[in-house]
Amino acid sequence: MLMISPRMASGMQEKQYTPSLLSFFIYNPKFGPREGEEEKKILFYHPIEIEKNEKIRNVGLCEAIVQFTRTFSPTNPAKSLHTQKNRQFFHEAEENYWMVMVVRNPMVEKPNKDGKPPTVEYQEEEIIDSVYGSVLQQCYCMYKLFNGTFSRAFEAGGVELLTQKLEKFFYRYLQTLHLQSCDLLDVFGGISFFPLDKMTYLKIQSFVNRVEESLSLVKYTAFLYNDQLIWSGLEQDDMRILYKYLTTSLFPRHSEPELAGRDSPLRPEVAGNLLHYGRFLTGPANLKDPDAKFRFPRIFVNTEDSYEELHLIVYKVRERVNVMDLNREFCEQLDSLVGPQLTLLASDICEQFNINRRISGPEKEPQFKFIYFNHMNLAEKSTIHMRKTASVSLTSVHPDLMKILGDINCDFARVNEDEEIIVKAMTDYWVVGKKSDQRELYVILNQKNANLIEVNEEVKRLCATQFNNIFFLD
Amino acid sequence: MSDEYYLELSENPVQFENASSVNNVFFDEANKQVFAVRSGGATGVVVKGPDDKSSVAFRMDDKGEVKCIKFSLGNKILAVQRTTKSVVLPDKRTLKLLKSQSINVNWYMYCPETAVLLLSTTVQGNVLQPFAFKSATVSKMSKFEIELPAVPKPAKLSLSERDIAVATIYDQLYVMYLKHHSRSTNSPGAEVVLYHLPREGTCRKTHVLKLNTTGKFALNVVDNLVVVHHQSSQTSLIYDIKLRELDGALNVHQPVLPARSINPYKIHLTGPAAAPSQAPVPCELYSSSWSVFQPDIIISASEGYLWYLQVKLQPTLNLLQDKGKLMDFLLRRRDCKMVILSVCSQMLTGGDKGNLSVVATVFDKLNQVYKEYLDAEQAYTAAMESGPSRSSTSYKRPVRTQAVIDQSDMYTHVLSDFTEKKGVKHKFIIAVLMEYIRSLNQFQIPVQHYLYELVIKTLVQHNLFYMLHQFLQYHVLSDSKPLACLLLSLESTYPPAHQLSLDMLKRLSTANDEIVEVLLSKQQVLGALRFIRSVGAHDNVSARKFLDAARQTNDTMLFYTIFRFFEQRNMRLNTLFTLIGHCEEHVAYFKQVFGENALMKQATA
Predict the structure, then answer these.
(1) Which residue has the higher pLDDT, A428 or A291?
(2) CA B547/CA A74 separation, integer angstroms
(3) Of residues B82, B74, B68, the one with CA closest to residue B56
(4) Which B-chain residues 522-561 have CB contacts (< 8 A) with chain A?
(5) For residue range A63-117, what is the model confidence (pLDDT) as tens digits?
(6) Cβ contact (<8 Å) for B431 and A196?
(7) Mean pLDDT of the region B505-531
């Protein structure tokens, strides 16, 4: 399939506004079914300053839309509502618990002559449903990771406890949503895996098993290096959201001061000395401190069946393990057991890291950039994104190209068959999307005057070199 | 308690008439024969060897008290010594003097296994002069001095032959010296000092075995272990000279296991005095009438028994807590296989904390020996293949000792039972299997498919598919066709197994047919065709199975596409569908759906 999508460049004095969060609310229609009790339905509303009646009206509207669309598709009611100024996203996170996110469309402010107020032009088509729909779902998953499900909180302490928890969590969390830089990666919610040889991997396995055996409080272990996952004892869905938390929130918070000036995601952290070099990222900052607090964040996993409540311990020696449960004695035990061994393993991995780098050759700008995602193991690889920080995820390509990627992804989502889409974008870029079984690959090529056949050949070559060890139809 | 005795007397001892006033008993160490000489030989000489075949009975004239009696090797010549200075050979034979050495000798000791003769020289007797005999030549080896605990003044003979024994341990010749406790030195007990006697070069003191007690001792060597019997406590100790790392130039050893008596032994009374139904009576162990000979012989002349001393390995399991050391010990024993395997089973079900690191150590020790054997075998095969031309170093096929515990042994005797065991946490089971695989990988031993199967079976049983996925992702379970097929069979319970399987088949690069089959079975006809084209095999592939699969989809456009593809291919290759066989029905179907004219014109093309 071939699509040509030329876009006009915008004028000079225009002012561009990125999408932003207008409101965010959570309600349960069952909590105020009678007239006059509508306010009871609302469990959380942001911004808090909104007048009560307006809140009720907005919630009522969403309820009505969902109800209305349900008559057409009982199992699959409306997921979003497009309007000129904004877009609303609906998500029934748990039965009867609805989450709604309202995003203002990006807009362009065009100045008018003669002192007239500027004309505002909303770019209604710029927002991709799947991207922001995923962001909303992520909000729920993150809440659930740290608080458990809505219904459990309600069972334990009624609406009061639930609203308390919601407010406490979302008040801070919504501030960290950076809607302007959401893209395809939010749809995938993938995990970047650290490539490792079999032997080192087995050593890590052995290490993890021994730690879990000697510290019986440790229920699950995940092992990461350089923000990339190597091993997860947690199930995939739990690991997915925990990974998101670790790599976009916890690690950046801790690494920014110590690694200031690190510009490339590919630069290994300084080896340091190989003596025991570990520390806790959650819990006590310094074990030697007699007043150290041994409090760790609680997390909830396997909420579908066993519903486990655990403590998250993140321990770092240039890479991290995280495990469960507290107190000083335990921490010291963990510190003395894990620290030295982990330090040794880290040097093994670091060696591997350098080998990988040597193989991949010098870091020169390649002719192409790509995003790869595998739905089966959530493996994600992007050469488009520079690195994740607490604030923004930086991409190295124009937002228009990212929009094309998002559109191709939507096309892929519609059909179940393998597909390939090639798009010629403005400024000589070619964008290629390939879907083979459960894998998706998006390539952005910057080749002047290339024709369709050449682009196709180029992508084939890329697949042959980068993905030769997997079954990827060409 | 009975399973605490780690030494025992052989079950089938050599029995002979016990020593008495009319019956003299002699033992020949070279032939391992016992001579029972009744009345100086007049009423019979019965010779019993280690097996029944070597038993001989004869009579000879009583010409006085027999001091010593021996056969030559092969029972050809009998020699009888009746006086201190003459030896009688019953047949008329002559002896020839081959070589003579003139040395003042206090006593001598001969080791038949190695054909080495030790002579005690000097006044104190502690300078030993060894001679090596080899096919009628005698060579003088360099002499050496045994360090005495105290030097007597005036000098007198201080080294007795009773305190010296010669034995082969780990293929090396050692002179063992029982150094008694001396009040003048501060040593807390007696010691056995081992002098290594190499074929060439000088003899050096290499090992000291600490006995930690005093009294009367006797030495045996069994299965490369030095056994020290202590008469007053009626116990024995065993020492393994390889079981200690170097402590300077000299190895000081403590007993491997706590002191234990030899396993109690009962004897059936025979002869006229014994009633047939009489219960066997306990044999007096460590009796003063016992004589001990090298390497492993114990003779009770008063009861008429010759036993071989044996080591029982099973009791060591409970006596040696350090599993790593236990493994080191067991791996050097002769009949160790089943015991090692039972140690493995025991440690996996023991459930002690920190067990995994023990498991890892044990696996590493086993695989080290296993790997050494594999390497030797490989080197041998390579040498054989390169031809006998350069057989300057004659290669011997490596001997597979019992200590070589391969994957199939582990699987059959340890791992498969262990994974089935109730009450063992699955987390531990998986950790153990991974540990074994890690160890094999560490020694670069290719892992057998059945181990992977066991891992997968265990993971599937406990619904740990994500774990399985990660293992496969990191190629911990190596690619193979059987493994790929196993994964395919898991697809119904774990859909991603399909992808994992296809990836694996792709990497194998010899499984293109299998990939096509998998895709066709999923009705991915176009995908299958594109794949076969991408590997350049589309000219040889059978059109029929593609057309069959396309028909099954009930998608006429798909059928059209596939049909056209093969039509064009065959045109290019100049063959007809009919020529490559069995496609008539598809041609007919094509005509029926798309009309006769849709077919390409063969002749004019």
Answers:
(1) A428
(2) 40
(3) B74
(4) 524, 527, 530-531, 534
(5) 899 889 888 888 888 889 999 999 999 999 999 999 999 999 999 888 887 777 8
(6) no
(7) 88
Q: Per-residue pLDDT for B315 more than 90?
A: no
**Cβ–Cβ contact B434 with A under 8 A:** yes
Q: What is the ipTM of this complex?
A: 0.83
Write out residues 405-424 of A within 8 Å (CB-CB) of B: 418
B375-411 per-position pLDDT tens digit: 988 888 888 887 765 555 566 788 888 888 899 999 9
Q: Do A377 and B469 touch (CB under 8 A)?
A: yes
According to DSSP, the residues that pair with B119 across neighbouring strands are B108, B129
Q: Which residues in chain A have Cβ-Cβ distances shorter than 8 Å to B505? A: 471
Using CB atoms, pick whichever of B356, B476, B530 lies closest to residue A198.
B476
The residue of chain B with its CA nearest to that of A229 is B470
**Chain A contact present for B463, CB below 8 A:** no
CA dist B124 and B555 (Å) reads: 107
A468 to chain B nearest CA, in Å? 8
Q: pLDDT-derived band of residue A135, with 50, 70 and 90 as boundaries?
A: very high
3-class SS letters over chain A? CEEECCCCCCCCCCEEECCEEEEEEEECHHHCCCCCCHHHHEEEEECCCCCHHHHHHHHHHHHHHHHHHHCCCCCCCCCEEECCCEEEEEEEEECCEEEEEEEECCEEEECCCCCCCCEEEECCCCCCHHHHHHHHHHHHHHHHHHHCCHHHHHHHHHHHHHHHHHHHHHHHHHHHCCHHHCCHHHHHCCECECCCCHHHHHHHHHHHHHHHHHCCCCCCCEEEECCEEEEECCCHHHHHHHHHHHHHHHHHHHHHHHCCCCCCCCCCCCCCCCCCCCEECCCCCCCCCCCCCCCCCEEEECCCCCCEEEECEEEECCEEEEECCCCHHHHHHHHHHHHHHHHHHHHHHHHHHHHHHHHHCCCCCCCEEEEEEECCCCEEEECCEEEECCCCEEECCCHHHHHHHHHHHHHHHHCCCCEEEEEECCCCEEEEEEEECCEEEEEEEECCCCCHHHHHHHHHHHHHHHCCCCCCCC
Distance from CA of B513 to the nearest CA of A (A): 14
Give me the sheet containing A319-323, strands edge to edge. A228-232, A222-225, A319-323, A313-316, A279-280
Nearest to B466 among A201, A206, A235 (CB): A235
Q: pTM value? A: 0.83
Contact (CB, 8 A) for B311 and B224? no
Range 294-353 of B in CB contact (< 8 A) with A: 353
CB contact under 8 A, B354 and A214: yes
Minimal CA separation from B604 to chain A, in Å: 31
Subunit contact B506:A438, Cβ cutoff 8 A: no
Kindly list the residues from chain A whose CB atom is less than 8 angstroms away from the CB atom of residue B428.
Answer: 213
Residue of A nearest to B464 (CA): A235
For B424-456, letters b (16+ CB in 10 Å) and e give eeeebbbbbbbbbbbbbbbbebebebbbbebbb
Rounded Cα gap, residues A383 and A368, in angstroms: 9
Pairwise CA distance, residues A25 & A139, whole Å: 11
Determine the residue of chain A that is closest to B515 in CA distance.
Answer: A471
A377 interface with B at CB cutoff 8 Å: yes
Helix axes B512-521, B481-489, angle to 10 degrees: 10
Whole-angstrom distance, CA of residue B594 vs CA of residue A367: 46
Is residue B511 less than 8 Å (CB to CB) from chain A? Answer: no
Alpha carbon separation from B509 to A469, A471, B479, B506, B514 (Å, rounded): 10, 11, 11, 5, 10
